[in-house]
Design a protein that fits this description.
It is a single chain. The chain has a domain of 183 residues: Rossmann fold. 38% of the residues lie in helices and 23% in strands. The protein has twelve helices and eight strands. Strands 1, 2, 3, 4, 5, 6, 7 and 8 form an eight-stranded mixed sheet that branches. Helix 5 links the parallel strand 1 and strand 2. The longest helix has 14 residues. The two termini are 30 Å apart. The structure holds S-adenosylmethionine.
């Protein structure tokens, strides 16, 4: 029997969180395109025989890797049913819904990637130990994880703007699974070391992300704690809150574009030979 883990995250990503990301998939792929490019370039560094994308969402990254690598088998796994349901397979790219922390993988991948999909495990050491079972001996892992909130101001702009309007906004527990749970490089090294990965290396990635200004209301309504709160509001309250949040994004808007700096780690590790 599959152990019962990650129940809160499973509920979030199979509920409003996952539906929001599924509905906003085109926009997510535009905003996070620079990070997709980085992982596609990593995949092309050497010949590959199988690539796994962990927490693949609606699959934009692994589809791009699959297209870049020709006929190399590529697989995306995600806990979120709503996102896997709209992830479009291609000749060499397939998807399945599972919890990557406990799914019984076969050692068939020589590259494991993730764009912001590995920060939500309730037991990261168990999860990365399990991911090691998906890697061939000597297989590589390339993960993108967010650095801290202070270095990623756009990620908290909406929450800060509604502090008084929605005082009880549910947000991620700073000490638990969530977008910034692997922001501390020392913690990342300890987690990967304890789960049996070698050659652990963290590199700072600082990239500007952007979207058309007219996409911002949809972005804010679909994603994150504020997006989920907006979806439950009546029209009048929603307009008031959304206008407040949109004003808070003014510093990021110019020439019809929303552009913001982002800060992450590219984490590299190797499965033992
Ligand atoms: C921030 S989203 C990133 C999605 C995608 N990688 C992208 O860049 O568009 C985080 C993803 O991790 C997935 N996730 C969270 N916990 C997971 C788990 N235990 N196993 C597999 N996927 C998980 C979520 O369902 C979600 O799709």
């Amino acid at each position: 029997m599959t152990p019962e883990v990650n129940s809160e995250q499973a509920a979030l990503w199979n509920g409003p969180g996952g539906h929001g990301w599924a509905a906003a998939r085109d926009m997510v792929d535009v905003v996070l395109q620079p990070y997709e490019d980085l992982l596609v370039a990593a995949a092309k560094e050497r010949p590959r025989s199988g690539v796994l994308d962990v927490g693949c969402g609606t699959g934009g990254v692994i589809r791009a890797i699959g297209a870049a690598l020709g006929d190399v088998p590529c697989v995306g796994v995600d806990i979120s049913g709503p996102q896997i349901a709209v992830a479009e397979e291609t000749a060499n790219v397939r998807f399945f819904q599972a919890d990557a922390q406990v799914h019984p993988f076969e050692p068939e991948f020589d590259l494991i990637v993730s764009r912001f999909g590995v920060m939500f495990f309730d037991d990261p050491v168990a999860a990365f130990r399990n991911l090691r079972t998906a890697a061939r001996p000597g297989g590589e892992m390339r993960l993108l994880v967010w650095r801290g909130k202070g270095e990623n101001p756009f990620m908290t702009t909406a929450e800060r703007a509604v502090e008084t309007l929605i005082p009880d906004l549910p947000t991620f527990d700073p000490d638990g699974p969530g977008p910034h749970s692997l922001a501390d490089p020392g913690r990342v090294r300890t987690v990967l070391d304890d789960s049996g990965w070698t050659g652990i290396d963290l590199r700072k990635v600082d990239l500007d992300c952007a979207m058309p200004e007219d996409a911002l209301p949809k972005y804010l309504t679909m994603l994150g704690p504020v997006g989920r709160a907006l979806q439950t509001m009546g029209e009048h309250e929603r307009d008031e809150v959304l206008n407040t949040v949109l004003r808070a994004f003014d510093p990021f808007v110019s020439d019809g574009e929303v552009r913001f700096p982002t800060a992450s780690w590219e984490v590299r590790a190797l499965a033992p030979l």
